[in-house]
Amino acid sequence: MKKYVFGIDVGGTTVKCGLFTVKGELLEKWEIPTRTENNGAAILPDVAETVLKKISEKNLDKEEVAGIGIGVPGPVNDQGEVAGAVNLHWGYVNLADDMEKMTGLAIKAGNDANVAALGEMWKGGGAGSDSVVMVTLGTGVGGGIINNGKIVTGVHGAGGEIGHIHVTDDVERNCNCGNRGCLEQVASATGITYLANRRLQKDDMPSVLRNGQVSAKTVFDAVKAGDALAMEVAEEFGKYLGTALANVACVADPEVFVIGGGVSKAGQVVIDYIKKYYTANAFMTCKQVRFALAELGNDAGIYGAAKMVL
Amino acid sequence: MKKYVFGIDVGGTTVKCGLFTVKGELLEKWEIPTRTENNGAAILPDVAETVLKKISEKNLDKEEVAGIGIGVPGPVNDQGEVAGAVNLHWGYVNLADDMEKMTGLAIKAGNDANVAALGEMWKGGGAGSDSVVMVTLGTGVGGGIINNGKIVTGVHGAGGEIGHIHVTDDVERNCNCGNRGCLEQVASATGITYLANRRLQKDDMPSVLRNGQVSAKTVFDAVKAGDALAMEVAEEFGKYLGTALANVACVADPEVFVIGGGVSKAGQVVIDYIKKYYTANAFMTCKQVRFALAELGNDAGIYGAAKMVL
């Protein structure tokens, strides 16, 4: 009988590792450095080594290990092949096959944003539902869509690329993706800073934001303090993101939206601004969905990776 | 061994019926009237009767019939329960259970737009792919999303409600759904007529559209004849729909978009206007998807209904 499962989250700097029970209890977590030199050739052998070492250290019977789930920052298809991952210096990698050969264990692989969404569905803000859309508001806007408990990968690995929904013609620069007017440009931490600076330059309305550094955090701190200009910026953010998520609901129609990433640390106020415009624009049967803050933080990836195997 | 399957498409006026081989060959199709009186209480018994009569008429062995697939104009959950269907005068109906009791055959039920999408995936414009988004441009804008060969129903039956994606703040009236600025208001046959009339009123630019009735058909006829005003209208239509589909691709990431409904009868020119704005706004990995015209016309529903069973 299977008792244990490993969840691995490969990032550009560190590889986060977790040993779980099959019920989802995190028994131990640790990190190893991500060695990106030589096109990241050492990354998978390092992961295999640390897992096998843990099995031996804990005196686990390999037969009791259900397998290893691995999230990576790049598009991954259903066969566990990675098309490429810039931050790992990877070109094409047959991750599932390579890892299975090195460990003799069952391997599942997925895109890190999708895998984090699965983690939040399993043990985080989306727990209790199997149809969850997760939005990660960090430097960019990441997304992951879980439908009936399964990640929606998409034919080109773009399932859940919510950050690149076109939301406005009113920005001056191109997005990193090459298009212009992506959600990421106005709803990520960077995007909120952009909206705030643009608003500050528009006129000389007083604001505490004029006294120090402008960031997503200082904007939402100012909102909580009742700063009128910051509240205008939050409205604009909420309009872009809330409307985009209403449109996502017309396609994926989830039960829960989970909001994570650095911006979500501001708490319920972020959800309140999103929900206002979500509710105004969502299709009638979808207006009452649940919005939840992410709960697993940086551990969402290892939880979701483990869940992929089960 | 199963050899046959029935596909039924229940509309507000007629019920379309098809007898298929399990390989998808349409052996015979026929229609019966939809009797909506008494809250549509006769509709399902009528369907059961016509199917059983066909089995007897054709001397089929019931053991050889895989089942009956039924599409209805309302939200249907995975258990085959219909929450309600205005055009059939139905409230809640446990379609799958009721039909199984009346026929002794396996029953599958689905929303008609989703079922039509499945039909086009199986034997129409999306054939060869199992990840298809279908858009039906009729009086409204219908949608159906097929991911890995399965309909995306959504938690509230709103999966594929593409017509209610918010695309503009620049319309004067509310949509039938109660919101304002839905895709349906500017990309359906009705929506194109609205855009054309609005453009005609804006100034007195000459156009053949000033000489007769304005409709989606006359607009695209005028486009083909090189009418400059009609081409402006088609650009606006293409911008709304192409951008909306680019956003759909960020969520569902299909292999093929199938464009159907009355508007699509204008042919490739419709796709050309959509693709221009789709390509400009789609996420990089999705820019090269295939666009196809629907091929099954009014038979898409019976094909898709049959496919649901298989």
UniProtKB/TrEMBL annotation, chains A, B:
InterPro entries: ATPase_NBD, ROK, ROK_cs, ROK_glcA
PROSITE patterns: ROK
GO MF annotation: an example: glucokinase activity
Keywords annotated in UniProt: ATP-binding, Kinase, Nucleotide-binding, Transferase
Descriptive protein name: Glucokinase
Top-level taxonomic group: Bacteria
Gene3D superfamilies associated with the record: 3.30.420.40
EC number: 2.7.1.2
Enzyme's top EC category: transferase
Recorded family membership: Belongs to the ROK (NagC/XylR) family.
